[in-house]
Amino acid sequence: MSDFAEIILDGKSYKMPIVVGTEDEKAIDINNLRSESGYITLDSGYKNTGATESAITFLDGEEGILRYRGYPIEQLAEQSSFIEVAYLLIYGKLPTEEELEVFTNEIKIHTLVNEDMRKILDGFPSTAHPMGILSALISSLTAFYPESLNPNQSKDEVNLTIIRLMAKLPTIAAWSYKNSIGHPVNYPKNKLDYCSNFLHMMFAYPTEDYQIDPVVVKALNKLLILHADHEQNCSTSTVRLVGSANASLYSSVSAGISALWGPLHGGANQAVIEMLEQIKADGGDSKKFIAKAKDKDDPFRLMGFGHRVYKNFDPRATIIKKAADEVLTALGVNDPILDIAKELEEAALTDQYFVDRKLYPNVDFYSGIIYRALGIPTDMFTVMFALGRLPGWIAQWKEMREQKEPIGRPRQVYVGEKERNYIPMNQR
Ligand code: SDX
């Protein structure tokens, strides 16, 4: 294999070094392309462009492989816990028992949020989408912890900022839900584990004791693990780009939450359930909606299908589909839209349009069915995605900072008007 790529431009030869990753991924390093040749590359949607070299997550879209710090997602989903996977992603190794205990306890003592945050929360109408509330309240953490704005925080100060975010996002997420149903918020109970505490804050009522179901806790751990990181996806790239300007972790993650909200990205899990409900209300004819999805004149898309990277099955979707059957059976839930989802998947996977375009169910296709069975309302589904993705965003922001990456500033090709003179109003 050659050590460089040769580019011939205007009769002149330019040699660009080849970069090879741990899993033999290859890239052409064009860091000097513009300074040497005056040319830039153009790649709408960055489909062929690497933004960084990262040691956090490896995925192979053709083989359906996903590993966090080298550990296969299948093993982590079955054997680990979300808080342990968060430690793995953020600090780069599986914790010892003592390290996990310290991490867990540090998070527990920071789960409360400043009571003034409730004044911000009260300012939102009950119709506010929880993702909008989450993004706003996470950004407001900069007001309560202004030291987080210092780009030269010490390692320990950065770690405290990280711990506070891991601790407070679940509280804020649960409070955004309570705000949307006009119910009083629940305060964290630090005797509970991370997932149980979130469920308590989401579903406990002052009028009765909330019984935490171990089946629900296990399912939630698995779902959050499966969402924890996914290399340079849209929201993670947003976190890294905002962070590259020396913006705080809170500001960077707040921006990532807004990117995740998009229905083409994390918002798809809500859109999938709404689509399945639409199909059910329309009589359940999957083939009719497959035809709509294929019709270029019809804006309808099969939400939860397709992926920029996975051109084979999304390994997370495979695990979540199996878990959906297990959880609904364990909870005694019979949800007809699970059957519609399976019919839709079966119809799509045998349809040439989807086969030709390598469109398979992605992480969002079945996740909403489990969230629904756990009692989580549809407009909280993307908040659940953010809860899961948080340690990944943190790990990627931390790596970008530690690698001292330059501020992200893409170039462009200008296609507008050439120079022209101003025209006074009376001459237009
Ligand atoms: C996530 O990047 C990540 O890692 C994201 C994520 C993560 O963990 O962070 O995995 C999470 O965002 C999962 C994706 C959730 N989004 C959806 O389910 C929305 C529905 N899917 C899409 O809109 C689409 O598939 C994307 C956005 C996911 C990927 O879009 P691409 O890679 O830009 O592909 P494309 O839109 O150019 O589609 C290629 C072709 C087009 O047809 P042609 O122009 O070739 O004729 O496939 C078609 C598209 O029209 N197509 C679909 C389709 N997805 C793509 N047609 C019908 N239904 C779909 N869902």
Report on this structure.
By secondary structure, the chain is mainly alpha-helical. It folds into 3 domains: 4-50, no CATH class; 82-215 and 231-262, Citrate Synthase, domain 1, CATH 1.10.580.10; 268-373, Orthogonal Bundle (Cytochrome p450-Terp, domain 2). It has helices at 33-37, 73-79, 82-91, 97-108, 116-122, 130-144, 155-180, 194-203, 214-226, 234-243, 249-260, 268-281, 286-294, 315-331, 336-349, 352-356, 363-373, 381-402, and strands spanning 4-9, 12-20, 26-28, 57-60, 65-68, 71-72. The protein has a 3-stranded antiparallel β-sheet with strand order 1-2-3. A 3-stranded antiparallel β-sheet has the order 4-5-6. The longest helix has 26 residues, at 155-180. The chain is globular, with a radius of gyration of 23 Å. The structure holds s-citryldethia Coenzyme A.
Pick out its properties.
428 residues, mainly alpha, Citrate Synthase, domain 1, Cytochrome p450-Terp, domain 2, 3 domains, three-stranded antiparallel beta sheet, binds s-citryldethia Coenzyme A
